């Protein structure tokens, strides 16, 4: 099993450009998450999904969009990139009994907006 | 808005010292509390999931306790080693099993040889 796979690992964007961070998991997990790493702030939740077709906002959703058309995939779209979106993004997943089951994280995607 | 707070923000100890840090979370509608270990340039890795008041978990030299009535959890490291240097994150849910898992800001531990 590959676990949680994120692509790309690194990307540099210009202000105003758009891009999609891809996340796929092969563990048949229902719950999927996108977090961003802010220095000194730990991980901030952007969006999450409890199953295919269901998504909900986290703590910092502005400037991002998600979709969940399949159980495996949970892409994160950045529209009109801004320098404030420079961060490391982590995708994660867990099984349906999410409280009792920990998250499995991807390797992270480092995004720089210049 | 769910607030998960960790203290201290950072900690420097000598090899062999024992240490502990705190995670505070809202006690109402508690569902579960997670602890993760996060090394620099890597992804967070799970340590514990705790669900019951009074729960105690142990993994090697690391242990954790949970008080859901007062809304806190302690993580203890006995006899710290340089390889314990990492950021330790806790996370909790907004309400029972909504899936919305919120992290604290982390405690960064540096263990000097």
Describe this structure in words.
The complex is a heterodimer of chains A (114) and B (113). By secondary structure, chain A is mainly β. Chain A contains no helices and 11 strands. Chain A has strands at 4-7, 10-13, 19-25, 31-37, 43-51, 54-57, 64-66, 76-78, 87-94, 104-105, 109-113. In chain A, the strands form 2 sheets. In chain A, strands 2, 4, 5, 6, 9, 10 and 11 form a 7-stranded mixed β-sheet that branches. In chain A, a hairpin with a 5-residue loop joins β4 and β5. Chain A is globular. Chain A starts with a strand and ends with a strand. Chain B is mainly beta and 113 residues long. Chain B is built from no helices and 11 strands. Chain B has strands spanning 5-7, 10-14, 19-24, 33-38, 45-50, 56-59, 62-67, 72-77, 86-93, 101-103, 107-112. In chain B, strands 2, 4, 5, 9, 10 and 11 form a 6-stranded mixed β-sheet that branches. A 5-stranded antiparallel β-sheet of chain B has the order 1-3-8-7-6, with no helix packed on it. The model of chain B has no long low-confidence stretch (mean pLDDT 92). The interface between A and B is medium-sized, with 26 and 28 residues.
Order of H and E elements of chain B: EEEEEEEEEEE
Shape type of chain A: globular
Structural class, judged by helices and strands of chain A? mainly beta
Largest sheet of chain B: 6 strands, mixed
Shape of chain B: globular
Distance between the termini of chain B: 41 Å
Oligomer category = heterodimer
Average pLDDT rating of chain B? 92
Output mean pLDDT of chain A: 93
Strand content of chain A: over 45%
- Structural class determined from secondary elements of chain B: mainly beta
Distance between the termini of chain A: 36 Å
The Rg value of chain A, from CA coordinates, equals 13 Å
Give the uncertain stretches of chain A in residue-range form: none
* Tally of helical runs of chain B: 0
Enumerate how many helices of chain A there are, as a single number. 0
Question: Helix coverage percent of residues of chain A?
Answer: under 10%
* Global Rg of chain B: 14 Å
What kind of sheet is the major sheet of chain A?
7 strands, mixed
Fraction of residues in H or I helices of chain B: under 10%
The count of β-strands of chain B is 11
């Amino acid at each position: 099993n590959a676990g949680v796979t994120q692509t790309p690992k690194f990307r540099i964007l210009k202000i105003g450009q758009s891009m999609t961070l891809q996340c796929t998991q092969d563990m048949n997990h229902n719950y999927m998450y996108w977090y961003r790493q802010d220095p000194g702030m730990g991980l901030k939740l952007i969006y999450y999904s409890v199953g295919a077709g269901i998504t909900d906002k986290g703590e910092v959703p502005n400037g991002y969009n998600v979709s969940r058309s399949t159980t495996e995939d949970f892409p994160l779209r950045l529209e009109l990139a801004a320098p404030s979106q420079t961060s490391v993004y982590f995708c994660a997943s867990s099984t349906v009994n999410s409280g009792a089951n920990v998250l499995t994280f991807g390797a992270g995607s480092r995004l720089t907006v210049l | 808005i769910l607030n998960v707070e960790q203290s201290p923000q950072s900690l420097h100890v000598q090899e062999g010292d024992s240490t502990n840090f705190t995670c505070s979370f809202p006690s109402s509608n508690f569902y579960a509390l997670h602890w993760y270990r996060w090394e620099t340039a890597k992804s967070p890795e799970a340590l514990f999931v705790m669900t019951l008041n009074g729960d105690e978990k142990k993994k090697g030299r690391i242990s954790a306790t949970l008080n859901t009535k007062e809304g806190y959890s302690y993580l203890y490291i006995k006899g710290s080693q340089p390889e314990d240097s990492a950021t330790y994150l806790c996370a909790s849910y907004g309400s029972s099993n909504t899936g919305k898992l919120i992290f604290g800001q982390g405690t960064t531990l540096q263990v000097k040889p």
